[in-house]
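Allow me, if you will, to draw on your knowledge of protein folds for a short while. Thank you for your consideration; the sequence and its tokens are set out here:
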Amino acid sequence: MPINKDFEILDHTADVGIIAYGIDLRQAFANAARALFSLITELDDLEEVLYRDIELAASDVESLLVAWLNELVYRFDTEGVLFKRFDIIQLDDTRLQARVYGEKVDSSRHELKTGVKAATYHMLKVDKTDGFRVQVLFDI
């Protein structure tokens, strides 16, 4: 079955979740990050005027997904940067290297929608069937 969407939002009591898709794991991780920032603001309003390099390691692919999304939340919280594009340079089951692009929050142009606290392990899934599908719930 061909994948015809990048991600979808899941409603969950007291939390919000996403399901992201990709033809490979890199695309699924990038789409999960896009879904995360789509919860926070309108992606169409963001420009790619700065970038950050991110390198992470974890014990398995599920933990790596949570670490990836939580690193992005951390960068948003500490640097005030909204990200729009996610180039996954290297990814395997335990390591990720990426360059992410976005801009600092500008309250005159960016409406912040949802305050995301963290990605959680609750209902976390990384599935490979026809392509990849990842599911994550966030504390809000």
In short: The chain has a mean pLDDT of 94.
